[in-house]
């Protein structure tokens, strides 16, 4: 079919588009290219070309492959509302480094074939709001891409896996209401601003990976849904906000570093949860959270406080706070633990129980656990010390409570706690002697 026939048939050939995009223009000519027809037929091959005009191809339909590898666009590129039936290749593992000197806009576009932007450089912003990535085979590829300003995916849908590994974005990353039906890989992402994943849905069995990611400000995931495993290992940000989230698979926050706080209010963790070695300069907030699987906070560090009011630890397996530290307060009012709880060598500023008795269901390991202050009555103190597991009984909590009562000049409570401690120690000794005789 000739190029003339293409035009008369309501389409324009990719060769004509190529010629118009790359030809030299007079100063009087319009510095923007818009095709005469919306349908583009044939492979559009812009490899190693320089496009000096702005590209405005709104609502176009590309019937064949679009190859932009090593192309340089000096002005904005706007593919808003376009439909790509085959591969749009703007950088893959073989050839990459497509350069967009200004904005790259694919909002509301539909990609029926694979999308590749691997290793590309965008010196403005990149827009994919409302975009549909329909291909379910290979990953839609944004890995190693560098973006000078913002990157937007609000309301986008990824039908297959998507890779953003080692992507660099100096501005904000917007993914509100985005749906990821396959695995989502954000490992080693570097974002200079906020990462917004409000109401995002991660539906793939492969889950989402934010390991080693770094954000200049906050990572927001309120009201998001994680159906598969969620890996935030060694994430760095200011605040990590996951309020009202459901984690359907394993949730890993080990070695997370927050220069401010982690927010997990009213969150449901369906499976194993790991906060081991996480470090938060201010607070870890888990008010109203539900932990259904085994949970570890081993060696967790909170510069100020840990907030676990009304939290439910429903697993009969151990909840591990060993070696954790809470600089100012650990709040456990109305907190319930169904299984054993370990506070071995845990350091707490003020242990706040209020009027509740959170440690009464099973056994508690308080060996070498230290707290400077205790917010609770004598009844709560008795429940706390009496819930200790016999095999790991320790006088340490009695001594801590006695010392605090003396510091507040509450001599009656101090004497009662001392007496209870002596009784418990004698009972423990008698039990050990009885076992030896047998």
Description:
By secondary structure, the protein is of the alpha/beta class. The protein has one domain. It is 14% helix and 31% strand. It is built from five helices and 58 strands. The strands form five sheets. The chain has a 20-stranded parallel β-sheet that branches. Strands 1-3-7-11-15-19-23-27-31-35-39-43-47-51-54 form a 15-stranded parallel β-sheet. It is elongated and about 95 Å long. The N terminus is likely disordered.
Please outline the helices and strands:
Elements: H1 3-8, E1 11-13, H2 14-22, E2 32-33, E3 39-41, E4 44-45, E5 50-51, E6 54-56, E7 61-62, E8 66-67, E9 72-73, E10 77-78, E11 83-84, E12 88-89, E13 99-100, E14 104-105, E15 110-111, E16 115-116, E17 121-122, E18 126-127, E19 132-133, E20 140-141, E21 146-147, E22 151-152, E23 157-158, E24 162-163, E25 168-169, E26 173-174, E27 179-180, E28 184-185, E29 190-191, E30 195-196, E31 201-202, E32 208-209, E33 214-215, E34 219-220, E35 225-226, E36 230-231, E37 236-237, E38 240-241, E39 246-247, E40 251-252, E41 257-258, E42 262-263, E43 268-269, E44 273-274, E45 279-280, E46 283-285, E47 290-291, E48 295-296, E49 301-302, E50 305-307, E51 312-313, E52 319-320, E53 325-331, E54 336-337, E55 341-342, E56 347-354, E57 364-365, E58 370-376, H3 378-386, H4 396-407, H5 411-437
Helix pairs in contact: 3-5, 4-5
